[in-house]
Amino acid sequence: MRVVQFSQYGGPEVLHVGAAEEPHASAGQVRVAVRAAGVNPIDWKVRSGAMAQVMPVEFPSVPGVEVAGVVDEIGDGVTDVAVGDEVFGFSVGGGAAEYALLDHYAAKPAGLSWAEAAALPVAAETAVRALDLLGVVADQTVLINGAAGGVGTAAVQFARARGAYVIGTASEANHDFLRTLGAEPTTYGEGIVDRVRQLAPNGVDRALDTAGRGALPDLIEITGSPDNVLTIADFSAPEHGVRVTTGADERAWQALGQAAELHEAGKLSVPVEQTFPLDQAPEAQRSSEAGHVRGKLVLIVD
After folding, report:
1. Virtual torsion, Cα 238, 226, 128, 203, nearest 10 deg
2. 153 and 93 in one domain?
3. pLDDT tens per residue, range 204-224
4. Do 182 and 156 touch, CB atoms closer than 8 A?
5. Structural domain containing residue 171
6. Which of 160, 187, 232, 251 is deepest in the core (most CB within 10 A)?
7. Backbone φ and ψ of 239, nearest 5°
8. Is the distance from CB of 281 to CB of 299 less than 8 angstroms?
9. What pTM was computed for the model?
């Protein structure tokens, strides 16, 4: 099968499309013929070697943790899908390939494109996990710092679906976009405390930081306590008494099914900024590494 892989750490140029043996589903897994694979910052961080101490890989390594495709092989014990079903979820052993294994997945809604489905898993799972840890419920006011990115847009919509009032920080160019998601936008950076207080004179109950731009002291001041703040991006958080949640935590796998339900109900949109063919994986990761991406980047497998 055709597969994107790299055999040494380095820049995007170490990625190439090569050949590999097809994987086969073990117990509890399904194999899919991949139609699309999401591109995430963790992909280039692993490829660059920046994560080598905590997430070493065996070479050659295949990037990609998000996949959407058609089930074509089922492992022992799997009873919730059949060959031919369309699913999206988390890949085992890399998803930027013609075939991939999934161990956590959900049925793809018919109205969700392949690219949108591949863009959902990481953002949905991370957003739901963070909102659950924060205890976000109806009638609360929630501030999401970095609301126009992949996780941010998902968090806005999941929080709105719970009945929360959401304020989202982003550059002014993304303010209209945030309004379409149901958030009240404001800019990040200096003066954010006063701006948010004008938008929420009765206070902010919880704050989620997805941007990691040194905003934690302001978020603590806005919410009144480090216990009301959670970050997925600022690893100086313990210095401020703020919790960090990572993929090492207990995962919110139920988010996949919830995302599918919300999309079918018209309450969840999935912004995809750009798609790339498989052989342009280096360009996709280069774009991801450059930042300032609204929504997601996706590889299309044909």
Report:
1. -160
2. no
3. 999 999 998 899 999 999 999
4. yes
5. 124-244
6. 232
7. -65, -25
8. yes
9. 0.94
